[in-house]
Amino acid sequence: MDIQLELEHKSKMLDACIKELAKTGKEYAEAYTNYRMALAKELLKLKDEGYAITLAGDIARGKPEIAHLKFEEIAKEAVYKANQETILSIKLQIKILDNQLQREYNN
Questions:
Q1: Does residue 16 sit within a domain?
Q2: What's the pTM value of the predicted model, to 2 decimals?
Q3: Cα(9)–Cα(5) distance, integer angstroms
Q4: What is the span of the domain harbouring residue 53?
Q5: Residue 31 within a domain
Q6: Burial 1-19 (b: 16+ CB within 10 A, else e)
Q7: Considering the domain boundaries, does residue 48 fall inside one?
Q8: Based on the structure, what is the number of domains in the chain?
Q9: Measured between alpha carbons, how far is 17 from 80 in angstroms, rounded to an integer?
Q10: Cα distance between residue 6 and residue 97, in whole Å
Q11: pLDDT, tens digit, for every residue of 22-62?
């Protein structure tokens, strides 16, 4: 494939990945918010039931619904960070192709 065409292809891929990053960033933030809100509600409930606040944190995090929300947060974070790494990789590929193109034009 021609280097110029490959550069254009990588640029389009980069644009798509950046749009996807915005989407996954929002999903990650929502998952984090959902987890923190549910955890706070559960901590208050356990405190009202007489549990020591230091113990309530462990109990709350062990409840299936809270643990599931934490799992969702971690999963969304992993996807978000993977998207960031993909963007860095594509940027590096673009830089390499650009350097190759510059060498061809200088010869």
A1: yes
A2: 0.85
A3: 6
A4: 3-100
A5: yes
A6: eebeebbeebeebbeebee
A7: yes
A8: 1
A9: 11
A10: 8
A11: 999 999 999 999 999 999 999 999 999 999 988 999 999 99
